[in-house]
Design goal:
Structural class of chain B: alpha/beta
Strand content of chain A: under 5%
Number of domains of chain A: 2
Helix content of chain A: over 70%
Number of strands of chain A: 0
CATH architecture of the largest domain in chain B: 3-Layer(aba) Sandwich
Number of domains of chain B: 2
Oligomer: heterodimer
CATH topology of the largest domain in chain B: D-Maltodextrin-Binding Protein, domain 2
CATH class of the largest domain in chain B: Alpha Beta
CATH class of the largest domain in chain A: Mainly Alpha
Strand content of chain B: 5-15%
Chain lengths: 317, 581
């Protein structure tokens, strides 16, 4: 190994380039497989970033993004003076926090529970039933929820049939955030559990057998074998989730909220949507919000990575 | 996986991705030229001009001016339209495109996204050659901004219209058509406005109530001539819910409903407030005020709040569901909506189809409801609805072709074409010059003629036809006469007995820096009203409303200052008159 490194160091730049090209050519089909992903990220993630400059510009349609005049920090100053911005920031953090607290652990628990089911048939049926909502868009799911929870929906009809009074679930500030949490759990938990189930599957079965011989019960096996086996992947997904904490569910909120619950439901993404498309747009302000969101996300992700390495010894990078 | 398979898969994936990427990119846009520079605005799309398929009929020369339209070059013109899927493939569409030797590329649009799409297209440089816009006073500020940024092509001057397109010139010379003046910025106008079809009623909006007269009679709460005081109206709607005359089942009958954009104004604010008639800003003692800040608005809001708390207003209304569907399904007692004859026809026809045994005239009757203050309120609209704007990139050839098309659609022949279809097949002129529709008899609505063309296939002509078609221009033969009579009777009654303020064009269509930047705050007002009605208690509502009004002053005041400094002749506030039943 040390010899190989020495040889590598002695190579001239031209030799190194040739070696790199040879390596690429040898693995050309792997690189070809990589190409679509690279193109995707280049086209849809990096190229559009030139639009970030709008946060410091007064956009005019005829001059375009690059030609519009610079206005310094004016858009940010305007933004930070807006009460609606702070309200949406607060809602974003609260809803994302609730998601982290309640939605994030649920697929992990689900995967562990699935692992404990021994009969293949019921296990498979449950998996399909729980995974299916993931494939429905929020447009469809929100219609289902509105029909279930609306004034003449099934839930209210049951309440009335049982002698109760109708509840306006969708316009109730106290209920709305919980509605987001439970509907997100319903939609995504089954799908997200797949990752953890795959990880659990990779745990060496002999560990469970040895534990059984040693007298471990099911709880002990979960506690001392399953959990350590998936802890790494849980850490990685946790850091990734922290890194997107400002994404509190744009499509979900947009399809479920209404002016009655803006105070508790309007998140940064829906705020951007409303100031951009529902009235005379100021693209500079919209971009400033997006920029702010991205920076906070990046800082939080790096912080989570740092904390994870410090206390857990493992991180994402 | 074998090596060969991996290679094949890799190549296939890469090709697929490249193909998708290639398909997703829009054709290159030309740099936006300055507005009005017609010589420099030849669109890149014209390079796509296709060779002749079928030679169009040679157009006639204008006798007075010598202008001869030239359709020899086939052009492709893009335009946005609702129900785009229903338009192509009909004889109407083929006839029109062939007549003008154009291929019209239809860009689909849904009504709810009309403003959003317009903003996106203009800002991103993806605007179609012709863009229909719901260009009312709430969008005027953006229109003015875009004009100032050079995004639109100006329409030809009135002199040029008179020389080349006489029908269009005559259209703009109509006494009540002020569309061109409203849309004029710095001496040029950039939007062709579509004149409404009811000048005889002073462009009164159709906003009014349809209700279940049959249910009212069943409950012995019917009032003669469908005229109700506010208390009678509330009592009736309460009885609809509590006594369930439609036998829908306990708790399933809805009282009052409306479109989201009329909520909650339809339930008290319009009936008490100066907002009904003045719009976002209203005159008071020679100065403009923010209408939302006036006491009458809060008064109306409390009326709506009371109805909402009693459950008389449809509880799901703020969620944006449309009331027509519930009404047509026999679940709703009264529906506040834009009841022109088209909507009356649509609702009654659906009621007849859904409930063949009921009298749809009784189930879809039009009510005249007096407001809580004793006034029979009605509202004047601006003289037009919708406008067609040309992209700055449209180019001389396409613009001229559009003007030729527009001029023809405003001619007698064009109006009959839009109303009925193709001459000889769908209509003919009698010896006395009157038009005779040749459609077959309807089997659904006896005594009427059935439109042979599919539903919504006239969408493009409705949006781009130049003007709404009045009954005087071309009688609506597919509507039963009593539908038309009932609607006209309502309009005439309101005109003669109601109180309608003149639409305030001055404040609504002022182009000024702050107003163009802020808009007219209607979305903010509406959102706050919905929030307070649905979530605040009646006791705390006035304070919360007043606090919010105060918090908005920093944004509103600069606009008010502009209005008050720029408009010299602020209208004199007119006092509502009381109607005695």
């Amino acid at each position: 190994m040390a010899q190989a490194r020495t040889v590598g160091l002695r190579m001239t730049p031209a030799q190194r380039r040739r070696r790199l090209l040879k390596n690429i050519w040898d693995s050309r089909y792997m690189y070809l497989l990589l190409l679509p992903g690279v193109l995707f990220f280049a086209m849809f993630r990096y190229v559009p970033m030139y639009g970030i400059q709008l946060a410091w510009k007064e956009f005019t349609a005829n001059l375009g993004v690059t030609g519009s005049p610079w206005v310094g920090w004016e858009k940010f100053r305007f933004l930070f003076a807006e009460a609606d911005f702070w309200n949406s920031l607060r809602n974003t953090l609260v809803i994302a926090g609730m998601q982290l607290l309640f939605v994030f652990p649920f697929p992990i628990i689900l995967a562990i529970l699935f692992n404990e089911v021994r009969q293949a048939g019921p296990k498979r049926v449950m998996q399909i039933v729980l995974t299916f909502p993931h494939f429905l868009s929020w447009v469809i799911l929100s219609s289902i929820i509105a029909n279930l929870l609306g004034n003449n929906g099934m839930v209210n009809n049951i309440i009335v049939a049982m002698g109760g009074e109708k509840v306006n679930f969708l316009m109730n500030k106290a209920v709305f955030r919980w509605l987001l949490i439970f509907s997100l759990m319903w939609k995504e938990s089954g799908w997200n559990a797949i990752l953890y189930m795959a990880t659990i599957t990779s745990i060496d079965p002999s560990l469970y057998e040895a534990a059984t011989i040693d007298g471990a019960n099911r709880w002990h096996k979960v506690r001392y074998i399953t959990w350590p086996g998936i802890a790494t992947i849980v850490t990685a997904t946790f850091i990734l989730r922290i890194g997107s904490i400002m994404d509190a569910g744009y499509m979900q909120v947009l399809n479920l909220y209404n002016p009655a619950v803006y105070e508790v439901g309007d998140i940064l993404d829906t705020y951007i949507y409303r100031i951009t498309f529902e009235k005379a747009p100021d693209y500079g302000v919209s971009t400033a919000v997006g920029m702010f969101k991205g920076v906070v996300n990046a800082v939080l992700m790096l912080t989570a990575e740092f904390v994870s390495r410090k206390f857990n010894g493992e991180g994402l990078f | 996986m074998s090596k060969k398979l991996t290679r094949a898969l890799a190549c296939l994936l890469a090709l697929c991705m490249l193909w998708i990427a290639g398909c997703s990119s829009a054709p290159a846009q030309q740099t936006t030229p300055p507005a009005n520079d017609q010589n420099a605005t030849e669109s890149g799309n014209e390079a796509e001009t296709q060779p002749e398929q079928e030679q169009p009929v040679a157009p006639e020369t204008q006798e007075e001016t010598g202008y001869t339209p030239d359709f020899s070059e086939k052009l492709s013109i893009s335009s946005n339209v609702q129900n785009a899927e229903a338009v192509p493939g009909t004889a109407l569409w083929d006839y029109f495109q062939q007549k003008f030797n154009v291929e019209i590329e239809l860009i689909p649009l849904t009504f709810n996204e009309r403003h959003e799409k317009a903003r996106l297209w203009v800002s991103s440089g993806d605007m179609p050659d012709l863009m229909w816009m719901d260009l009312d006073e709430s969008m005027f500020a953006e229109y003015a901004n875009w004009v100032n940024q050079g995004m639109f092509q100006a329409y030809p001057s009135m002199d040029e219209l008179e020389a080349k397109w006489p029908n269009l010139a005559a259209y703009y010379q109509l006494e009540n058509n002020v569309g061109d003046e409203l849309m004029t910025i710095d001496g040029k106008w950039y939007a062709h406005t579509m004149l409404r079809d009811n000048p005889e009623y002073n462009f009164m909006s159709g906003m009014s109530w349809m209700y279940r007269r049959d249910w009212a009679k069943k409950l012995n709460l019917y009032q003669e001539d469908d005229i109700y005081t506010w208390d009678e109206w509330v009592e009736l709607n309460k009885a609809f819910i509590e006594q369930d005359p439609g036998e829908n089942g306990a708790g399933k009958t809805i009282g009052m409903g409306t479109e989201l954009f009329y909520f909650p104004n339809a339930f008290g604010v319009y009936q008490t407030s100066n907002q009904y008639g003045y719009g976002a800003f209203s005159p008071k003692d020679g100065k403009y005020e923010w209408t939302a800040a006036r006491p009458e608005t809060l008064e109306g809001l409390l009326v709506a709040k009371d109805l909402y708390d009693q459950g008389i207003i449809w509880p799901d209304n703020p969620l944006g569901q449309t009331p027509d569907e519930s009404y047509k399904a026999g679940l709703m007692g009264s529906d506040f909506n834009n009841f022109t004859v088209d909507r009356v026809y649509s609702v009654r026809k659906a009621l007849k189809e859904n409930f063949p045994d009921i009298d749809e005239n009784e189930a879809g009757a039009l009510a005249k409801v007096i407001g809580p203050d004793g006034t029979l309120w009605c509202k004047q609209s601006q003289c037009y609805w919708g406008a067609v704007i040309m992209s700055a990139n449209i180019g001389e050839a396409k613009m001229t072709r559009w003007m030729d098309m527009l001029d023809w659609m405003l001619s007698k022949e064009g109006i009959y074409f839009r109303a009925y279809g193709i001459e000889g097949t769908d209509w003919e002129l009698a010896e006395d010059g009157t038009v005779k529709c040749l459609w077959p008899e309807s089997t659904v609505l006896p005594g009427t003629q059935a439109d042979p063309y599919p539903d919504n296939s006239r969408s493009w002509f409705n949006w781009y036809g130049g003007a709404a078609i009045s009954a005087e221009d071309a009688p609506k033969v597919n509507y039963p006469q009593n539908y038309i009579d009932d609607t006209n009777e309502k309009f005439a009654f309101l005109r003669d007995n109601g109180f309608m303020r003149s639409f305030d064009y001055e404040s609504s269509y002022l182009s000024a820096e702050n107003k163009n930047k802020s808009g007219n705050f209607t979305t903010e007002v509406s959102d706050k009203m919905i929030e307070l009605i649905t979530t605040a208690s009646k006791e705390e509502l006035p304070q919360l409303w007043n606090d919010w009004i105060a918090s908005m002053q920093d944004k509103v005041q600069p606009v008010l200052d502009e209005l008050n400094s720029m408009i010299e002749d602020v209208p004199v506030e007119s006092e509502p008159r009381v109607y005695n039943k």
